[in-house]
Amino acid sequence: MSLKKQAAPLRRSIQHSRTLTRSYISRLPPELLLEIFESCLPPFPLSHSDQVSFHPYIPHHTDNDIYTGVDTFVAVKLSHVSRAWRSLTLSNPKLWSRIIILAKSTDKLSHPWETTPSRLINALTHFLKHSQEHPLQILFQSIYSNKDTLRILHPLKLLFDQSRRWDRVHFSLFGTQIARLIFPTLFPLLRSFTLYNEAGFWATVPPVFSAPRLELLRLKRLDIADTDFHRAYPHLVDLSMAHYEVSECISALATASPSMSMTFKNMYLGSDVPNLTPIISLASELRVESNDDFQSGFVEALESLLGQISSMLSLHTLAFTKSPAQLGLFPTTAFKSFLSRRQASDSAITQLLLGQWMLDRNLGLIEVLTLLPSLTHLTLDECPPSRDVIRSVNAQRLISDQLLRALELPALESESDMEITCLLPRLTHLSLSFFDFEGGCNFQILLSMIQSRRSPARITATRVARLQQLEITTAPELLAAEDREILLALREGDFDVQCRVICY
Prior knowledge:
This is F-box domain-containing protein. The chain has 504 residues and is α/β, with parallel strands linked by helices. The protein has 15 helices and 17 strands.
């Protein structure tokens, strides 16, 4: 018997063993494997229109920590698994077109390529080479130290040289770095542009550049004087400005394009309240945010802004958010005056968020519903409790006509408000928090709004709401025994509603 015939059974046995030990993922076709690789890429900032949350105004992240803990070099790791995977990853430019550099300081870095600017150059060169001509998505948070402040300009130049391929870009830099950059003037593919000056003096950049596809623009501490946003960026639908005086914010409103969503973060008043003429704008959304860096003048700035935006006939979304550390009541008088002028022009506000604002006794849940009968989404962080108002026939008639579909009450303190909530006929999304509740939570009221899985379907009146999503935040030890049982049933899915229970 020849050696080949003797070795044949052994060869078949070895081949069979390899088949048995071969992983299932290695049997996948390259096309499917590439789809899996692409799904492993780190997330990228979504535009405002793409954000999804329980409430349309709740942001998914803040400006400075949106990518904490994100694995930024997925493509590199995939290419080091095997020769087959390396060949596959290098052949797909999309895997290398998402460039995320998180480099805030040289002593707090988690990736070896980010340890020094010279290694950043090697990393970026590698990514830009293998991304070929694919549109780029870039997030760059700058290194800031005495020795590396200006050395980081070289890696940035590599990215700026590829501006013709920019699709969505986010740069968090410092004033000294921005001042030394030469900004391109043409961005043929750019859809989203974010440039934050994180510290230092105000930087001046070209206020107008050619970006025919630009839809989202976010700026912080940058000189935007005399910028006509409507003319410069005809397709812009989302504008965010951070750390600007109220006069600059109002000037931006004057040049808004149709259906634009606008966000003013950390707005401050400056030395004098600007005496500006009323501005006619077509902006549809306005969000004003502030933090505890601005302890004074924010209420006055908000009053001034409310006086200026009353003529914005297309405005249907309002969100006012501040830090809990900031003192002062929400300017109820200015707000009611704004609403009365809006009602006179027959233009409705449909979505409202008041985040961390203390409301006085004249602006509770029932008052907000009275002032804004066309509301479909509402969040009140610090809502004063309603007392016995539900007993009024007029109040019940008002509630029965409400259009509200999504309601969030993070500080529910009144059973009357609970009753009002359960009488809203079109409510489908509800988020409640129970802490120091007068007379107990009385979850029994909620049961009228949801269907038990264990009982036959009920035929109910069309005026009774049927919740689709329910979120409850509470401390179980503060609840009565029957309420704890209901809470347990909600958590275990005994009711036909998507329910999330958060216990402290």
